[in-house]
Amino acid sequence: MKLDWQSRIINQNKFRPNDNRSAWQVDRSRIIHAAAFRRLQAKTQIMGIGLNDFHRTRLTHSLEVSQIGSGLLRHLEKQHPDFTHFPDPSLLETLCLAHDIGHPPYGHGGEIALNYMMREHGGFEGNAQTLRIVSRLEPYSDGHGMNLTRRTLLGFIKYPAFIDDLWHTIPHHDPQRAFIKADDWRPAKGLYKDDKATFDWIVAPLSDADKQRLGDFKAVDEFRSKTSFKSLDAAIMELADDIAYAVHDLEDAIATEQITLKEWQNHALPALELVQCEWLSDSNLTERLFLGSEAQRKDVIGELVNLFITQSSIVHTELEFENPILNYTVELPHSYQHLLETLKSFIYQRLIRASHMQQIEFKGQKLIIELFEAFACEPLRLLPETTANVFRLAQQQNGNTHRVICDYLSGMTDEYAFKTHQRLFSSNS
């Protein structure tokens, strides 16, 4: 029997008279009303720039990714009118809105800290946590999260292999060191073995050959491997996320004066001169970003977003998959991909990797490690009642109790993690 991509892992008989929503619209509704989605409003997109009311939170970033994703889909549908395998607009909105709900407190610092503490228990990674939240943790159903459709869940999987396999060499752990080296403990991007049953259900409609191809990966450094393929839906969402990061985060950084004209001239312009993109030569990009009015800056930001959307197209993947959802992806021409990567690299190097930003990440990293150690030491004493009950159940079933603590800490906002740390460790609390 052909398995339906609109099916859900459990059948819930909901009393919804005259509910004319599609399956994809139902999924979007469940995301919007989820606590994990609401918590994004208390997590900043770029740490350290929330000093005024301009800065983007993870929530506003997700709304922008959704808007860009919708634009990409409309463009691709117009460009490829005979292509019949595009995701429904509501499905894509769902993916874009929720792509960051697995984001832990303190950004990448928190992610590194949790991955380090989970080094012997399956690791931690933000995208893996997103799938875990929507399919396991969010209390809409009994044990199956939001009970979303199979194709929606597949779209959340950007890295379709298990962290245990992708993290091919775990870094040496020196208990004598006071601090950990962040680059060593950056997570391999994949899924948790704890969620294998969910993953197996999601990919059940695929042939054995497609399942094997989908999980292909290759080593990228001495510790980690990376997967090579994802669904078309995930690819569109990922491109929308990249555009929002490269363009709107740049807008934030300029508006909040985290990036100066001098830095742009010294570091961005030399790299942009190597990009063979006709738009750049006629855009007056520097003048409109830094020297003009706010309206001019917003205008050129809009031009950049439109540029990347309208240059995108559907292409075949490197391997021949049997399922069309896997056999196609979305790409930019080389010159425009080069432009996008140049802007992303500039933001990463001059803002994310700036010393004052890294100091904030380091502080958050240390805070999360200390919280994990405290809760792991006396979980039934310190965990809230509902989480303590989950911990007891995991104990009884010989499950991964460390994953329960990790789930609890990763769901915190930055402020809540800070206040919890103060209660436990501060003499002034």
UniProtKB/TrEMBL annotation:
Question: What are the HD domain coordinates in residue numbering?
Answer: 58-246
Q: What is the lineage of its organism?
A: Bacteria, Pseudomonadati, Pseudomonadota, Gammaproteobacteria, Alteromonadales
- State the PROSITE patterns in the record: HD
Instruction: Give the InterPro entries listed for this entry.
Output: dGTPase, dGTPase-like, dNTPase_2, HD/PDEase_dom, HD_domain, PHydrolase_assoc_dom
Q: Which UniProt keywords apply?
A: Hydrolase
Cross-referenced SUPFAM superfamilies, in alphabetical order? Answer: HD-domain/PDEase-like (SSF109604)
NCBIfam families of this UniProt entry? Answer: antiphage_dGTPase, dGTP_triPase, PRK05318.1
Pfam family name, one: HD_assoc
The highest taxon in the source lineage is Bacteria
**Family in the record:** Belongs to the dGTPase family. Type 2 subfamily.
Kindly provide the name given to this protein in its UniProt entry.
Answer: Deoxyguanosinetriphosphate triphosphohydrolase-like protein
What organism does the UniProt record list as the source?
Pseudoalteromonas neustonica
